[in-house]
Every structure is written in C-alpha cells, then in structure tokens.
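For this section, I looked closely at a protein sequence along with its fold in token form, which I now present.
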Amino acid sequence: MTTTPVTAPLSNRFATVLPELAVPWRAEQTPDPKVLALNDLLAADLGLDADVLRTPDGVGLLTGTSVPPDATPVAQAYAGHQFGGYSARLGDGRALLMGELVDREGRLRDLHLKGSGRTPFSRGADGFAAVGPMLREYVISEAMHALGVPTTRSLAVVATGRDVRRETILPGAVLARVASSHLRVGTFQYAASTGDVELLRRLADHAIERHHPAAASADNPYRALFEAVVEAQADLIARWMLVGFVHGVMNTDNMTISGETIDYGPCAFIEAYDPGAVFSSIDVGGRYAYGNQAAVAQWNLARFAEALLPLFAQDQDTAVELAMESLGTFASRYAVTHSAGLRAKLGLPIGLEDSIAAKLGEELLDLLHSNHVDWTSGFRALGSAARGDAEPFRGLFVDLKAIDEWLSRWQSVGPDPTAMDRANPVHIPRNHLVEEALDAATAGDLAPFEQLLEIVQRPFEERPGLERYAAPAPEDFGRYTTYCGT
C-alpha cells in the first residue's frame, strides 16, 4: 500500500527524543522545481508512490516545501574534528531531517534533504547546493549500494530553479537522501561537550535502540554500543578499500554510528593502484589518502570513545582502560574483513592456508602498485587468467617476469573464476565519466548521467558496447581533483 507524500507517515522521533540536538526549521521555497532524478525502486521500498512523488505535492516533500502532518523538519546539531581540528558547533548548515519512515522491512529510515537552504548552523554560507554535486552524490551512492558497500541512498534530485553562486553561477538543486540514521561520531561529541551526562545517555540509548539493539542486554550497554560501532566501521572501511573508494573527507562528523557511508563530497575511485592517492583539493597533507583510511577511522573512533567515557564507568581511569581495550579490536576486525574480501577477489579456495593467501595478496598489491595497474580492470582481467587466458592481465604489467612468477603460484592453488566475477566489478563510477555526466547535466543534458547511472547500478555485468565505461581515464584527463562542496 502506498501513500501520497504529503500524508506520508513521517515520524518526528529524533526531534522528540533529542530536542536538544534538533532545531525546528523549514526549507527555502523553490522558484521552479523540476525532478532530475528519482529512485523508483527506493521509493517503493519506503512505501511511497514514485508517480505521486513527481506531482507538485510530491516534489514539495522532496524539497521540504510541503511538510506532512505531524512531521517536524529539523536541522541536527553536531560537532566534529575536521582534518584533525575540533569544531564545537557544526550541524546541518544546508540540510534538514524531514523525519523518519518505516520501510517495507519494518526498518526506520531517515528522509533527509541537502541543499534546502540556510539554517542556524550555516556559518555564513548560503545553504544551497548545485545540480552537479547533488547528482554526483546520487550516482556514487547508488553505485556503492550496487557494489554491496553500506551507504546512505539517494531518493531524488530536484532542480530548484534558483541559481547558486560558486566560482561561477550554477543551477541549484536539492538532494533527498535516505539513511538508517544521521547519527554521527560528531553527534556524540556535541552531546558530550554540553556536560549533560543524561543527554549523552539518552543519545546513546537512542543509538542502541535504532542500530545496535543487542547492546541493550550487555553488562555494559554503552561499551557494547562502542564495540558494535567499531565493528561496523572496520567492516565499512575494509569494503571501501576493496572497491578502491576514497572518501576524501573523513571528519568525525562524516562517520556514522550505523556504519553507512555518508557525504559524497571530494570522493573518488582510484584507477592505478596507489595507497597514497588523494583527490581532495584541500587535503594537502594526504591525511585522508586511500591507504590512510583505516588508521583515520580508528582515530575517529578514539574520539567517539572519549565522548562516551562518562557512560563506560564512573572512574575515569577504568573508563579509559575499557575504551582502549575495545578500540583495540578495530585492527583485527578490519584485517579479517579485508583479508576475506581480498581472498574473494583472488578467487582463493576455502581451506587454503591463511599464510599462503596473505602472501599472494600482499605480493599482488605490490606488483599492482609498482606497475601502475588499474585496480578495477586489473582484478577483473585476473578472472580471465583463472579461466586460462592470462594475456589480458599480463598485458597490464611492465615487469612480466615478476607477474608470470606470481601467476604460476596463484594458478597452482586453483582459483575460482566464477567467484571472482562476483567479487570484482566491471564498472565503477569512473572519475572522468562522472565529470563528463555532471558537466552535461549542468548544461541541461541528463542523458549521460542517466546512462552512467544505469551502468553502475549493474556493476558486475559485462555487456557488449559498454567497453568505454570499463576503461580507465584517457591520458589527457590528467590528475583528478575534487573540491569540498562538490
């Protein structure tokens, strides 16, 4: 059964349970709204009628200009460490939580807007967003979902009919996205900074109920919450690494308690394998480089632990000891998830000794790096080698002696090419194709965006005629740079 959006059963649970962290607010009016992209399948999962979402009332929901009865749109408060520096008051500067929906599996999901206008947290910014960046989040988040990486989802992008001023004048847009919640490490940092331990406890209880209910029955529920988040984030970052994803702005306000990827700003996918790959224009020190992501996640989780210390134990020394012990599980959990994923990408059989699997994986990564081999197409070509045709893979390397020696040892363990095809995508949102599609969309042509979206939503399928979408960027594309706000 579907409902019209303006009467959709949006609850205001966050606004009611945690009013200290929620500022009731309304979106700016949109002069001439037009739906640019709408996720029909996601709408159906949420019990919404996609056709109704395309009506004026539906577009009103997607832009925040029509508020369902009993809903309370709010800007959420949070703090955060940005590039290592602490900001005590960040919050939704251009976003609104419209409320929560129950999806068809009974899960509570946030409906959240980005680019809906100024809020009390805007800090001098205009609160708006441009068409290109919002379509960027749409295509990359949907690609991540198709790749099996936990992520926020994109429901719609609506052009507002309002121009926004950046380096140039650009057409404006609002993104409607869906998440398990928008609780962040920075949310807990903000609550802890108030000194109100009961507020911190209510926030933690809310997070346990919503995301990690098993923690409620633990001897120390708040430590169990922390450990559940450590586990979820270790798994998430390992999955990022396995698909070659670089988030680019891993501030604590961009780390969710649910373990979903959030905020696709200066993100990108690596091509030639390089642990030092950085794509953000402002990450001059490489803090958030591809190979640093696990270490940064652990650092962010240490800040989460600091916020939770008053709930771990009354004695500060005991609380710190418990936090350190629990944080220490991150590395092992990450290693297990990453190793299992790399084994799958290599097609290694069950029962193969871990030491042999680890050596094969480490040596291949070294060869990929030293030979500047494309991450995605390299692993996909390896599947052909498992079927007996090694030439497509060998042709990617300069050091043929080294790769031949590695191939001989790898083939001797009997890799499974069918399993490899399930683990190694053909298509990712290649950076040059994303930029090409966004440039066209900004100029009014959505066809390249729609084509790219359709391809990355089926990433493991080889389809004739789409070879261009599987190939690395041409040499004249140059070094890829992304910008905050994009």
Q: What stands out?
A: DSSP finds 19 helices and eleven strands in the chain. Confidence is low (pLDDT under 50) at residues 1-5. The longest strand covers residues 153-165.
